[in-house]
Hints:
Low-confidence stretches: none
Number of strands: 0
Mean pLDDT: 84
Helix content: over 70%
Amino acid sequence: MNEQHTNYRDEQFWFTAAVVTFNTVLVGKDIACIPKCSLVFASALVSLLGAIIILTRWVADARTHADIVRAEQDKKGSKSHPSRESGRFKHFPKEAPNPEFASVWKRFYYFLVELSTGLQAVPYIVVEGSGSLFYLLLIGLTFLAVCLYA
């Protein structure tokens, strides 16, 4: 397991923990004076951001893993794998924009491509049964609890 994979996994865990904690606090009785629509809106916003982060981290990790596998296969001389242009990450730029020099719009475009790829990969994530699916379920269930009990 490479260090980058560990970073993505840790980020997913901590973002999920933060969203679940936030939603759990919103279900609590101590904030009953806050309007219910405000609670649901805040939960929806935080849950959506958490889900986006989980998906984009999954995409980044899966892409890195695909590059490692492709490089190992190339080293062995195996040509059985398809090119990147026909794979799940075909719309991805080769590298993320450099934060020092890239424009805001270039980074935003990269984010949209990353998010689009993550949304298209949801069926794969479900079938894979990975930790990302578990995190998305936790976020979704705690958001549902806020909607039901707020």
